[in-house]
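Can't paste images in this forum, so I'm doing it all in text. The chain is below; anyone willing to post the predicted structure tokens underneath?
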Amino acid sequence: MSEFVEAFDRLSKIGPCVSIFGSARTSEDNKYYLLGVQIAKELGSLGYGIISGGGPGIMEAANKGAQEAKSPSVGLNIDLPFEQNHNPYIDQSHNILFDYFFVRKVIFVKYSQAFVILPGGFGTLDELFEALTLIQTKKITKRPIVLVGKEYWSGLLVWIEETMLSAEKNISKEDLNLFKLVDSSQEAVDYIEDFFPQGYQQLSRKIVVDMVRVLCDTYGVMNGIITKENTMTHRNAADSYNWKAHHQLMRRFNLGLKHSTLGKPLNTAYAYNWKTRYR
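Text version of the structure:
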């Protein structure tokens, strides 16, 4: 239980994130390591935080790209008898060590709006199929799962389609739409960006301001926080509010919202912990 509490506390204000999975054994000169850095950097520049397993290899590449983009760099480390030591590219405040795999998995899923899967071993396959199962069974809302590396993943996907689907009928044809196979960082980033409803981008600043005012009233915070004619305290609060990040959060925070109407995003706003946000 203490591992849940610590992780929830450390990541309570993290914002929208993408988890990047892959092998701990990948060297720095490997093409997939370099691709991992690039994907994380491009996602970070768009406002996403990056979550990795905290170790070396592809995990290190993900955190390195996040730091290069100056976005949150999270490492969900695990105590193992071999391989796993935390990499140097994790934010100190976001470097979390787990003893239990199941707790770590919960945190990956809870704080990720998308999953990027680079080449890896049994652990990477476990994380991939965990995400696929949760989405297939509707235990979590649908979100992007991107497999990177056609040469690496094609054999597995052929087996899934020919044996698991066609021969044994153990999955549905629609399940093949739960993931996307790509070969480049641009394809991966574009798929994630295009996945979420574009209606979130269309929320005007006025609507967001009105929502913040209502929420400020709800929690007894000064209603004039947005009005620059008010006191210096109010002006500072308005100036320091990250409007770009807020729009990104409203557009990307995947809580199962499927429409661009005001009512649905308002529900998201109320679900967000505004009281904590304004401390």
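Residues 199-209, 219-241, 250-279 have pLDDT under 50 and may be disordered. Residues 79 and 178 are 31 Å apart (CA to CA).
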